[in-house]
Amino acid sequence: DQLVNQIAAGEVIERPAAVVKELVENSLDAGARRIEVDLERGGLGLVRVRDDGAGIEPAQMALAFERHATSKIKSLDDLERVASLGFRGEALPSILSVSRLRMTSRRSGAGHAWTLGGEGVLFARQPVPAAHPPGTSIEVRDLFFNTPARRKFLKSEATEFRHAQNALDRIALSRFDVGFALRHNQRRVRDLAPADGAPARRARVASICGEDFIAQAVEIDESRMGMRLHGWVGLPSFARSQADLQFFYVNGRLVRDRLPGFALRRAFADVMHSAHHPAYVLYLELDPAGVDVNVHPQKTEVRFRDGGRVHDMLFGAVHQLLRGVRP
Ligand code: ADP
Ligand code: MG
After folding, report:
1. Ligand 1 pocket member 9 (CB < 6 A)
2. Contacts (Cβ under 8 Å, ≥6 apart) of 140
3. What is the pTM of this model?
4. Is the ipTM of this complex over 0.95?
5. Which of 5, 13, 26 maximizes ligand 1 atoms within 8 Å of its Cβ, making it the mutation to test the pocket?
6. Which runs of consecutive H residues, i.e. helices, occur in 51-156?
7. Residue nearest ligand 1's atom 19 by CA
8. pLDDT tens across 67-104, in order?
9. N or C terminus of the chain: which is more exposed, having fewer CB within 10 Å?
10. Best mutation site among 29, 68, 104, 114 for ligand 1, i.e. most ligand atoms within 8 A of its Cβ?
11. Taking every annotated instance into account, which residue ranges of this chain make up the domain DNA mismatch repair protein S5 (predicted)?
């Protein structure tokens, strides 16, 4: 019921950024090629995510707001696979329980769209006809309107917007094949076309991480020890508050781990005698059997079967890269 969902929302939906993350991930799951995110007042007034994905059948729409009613688990095999990706069928019921929400969706080939809304709970289980191109829009207004205690934990609109933008940026850096747009209070903040080819990927990194980062960063693409490491590493000359310029993806998922920072600092110290805090956008690919992914709603953690090997791989690859560019 609504209370259970609100308690779950406390876990899953901490702030507008979490709404953005959950909705955009759903759009990706639906095979979207372009995803548009509109925010008002840092996402406190409105989070709207519109995609051109597969859409959802009208008969399935109300079901999507029931707990654990994910459409993404069809067999036990799937269950194991999606368990590691965090598909738990909790996001939509949680978000609905603390907002005014509307879902409008049209399957490709359908004559028109269907729409369903609610405030804390659904108004009705039966969707009604609506106008919308193929794909899905979900509009979330007045987040935490019915849980004032939670709303008090939110920061300023500017801060909430920054969190929401970071959430989208982290995803955009992992899916170069998908286009993303972000507007805040009607103002265009990001417009990222699908990026195939190295120059387009570089351009996307530039718009997210800054021209100053990409201008001096060294590109890496190294395979060794059965793993591949690619991406961009900032040099010591890149002086900026870099707290949020550390992106580390393991098999496509953003991971917060001290391991890459540690390996990079050692490589920089060794080759360049520099003790700076490295900036990087790095993608590590390895045999999934070598990593345990544990997806907490707010953060992704991995446990490498052999962290020492991963460290040695990163250290070795970056060490070689730096020796090549050392002045
Ligand atoms: P989960 O993603 O874990 O399945 P959610 O609560 O995030 O759970 O979503 C519930 C269901 O709603 C999904 O399984 C999917 O069937 C449907 N759904 C949500 N968003 C979309 C979307 N953008 N396009 C198509 N279907 C969607
Ligand atoms: Mg989901």
Report:
1. no
2. 19, 23, 46, 47, 48, 95, 99, 100, 101
3. 0.92
4. yes
5. 26
6. 58-61, 76-83, 91-97, 148-151
7. 26
8. 876 666 565 555 555 544 445 678 999 999 999 999 99
9. C
10. 29
11. 205-323
Total residue length of the chain: 327
| Residue range 2-192, CATH number | 3.30.565.10
Give the distance (Å) from ligand 2 centre to CA of residue 159: 24
Residues 6+ apart with CB under 8 A from 212: 238, 240
Query: In the chain, what are the domain boundaries?
Result: 2-192, 204-325
**CA 18 – CA 84 distance, rounded (Å):** 19
pLDDT tens column, 274-288: 888 899 999 999 998
Is residue 51 within 6 Å of ligand 1 at its C-beta? Answer: yes
Report whether residue 5 contacts ligand 1, using a CB cutoff of 6 Å: no
Residue ID of nearest Cα to ligand 1 atom 1 = 89
CA distance 15 to 270: 41
**65: Cβ below 6 Å to ligand 1?**
no
- Whether the CB of 115 sits within 6 Å of ligand 1: no
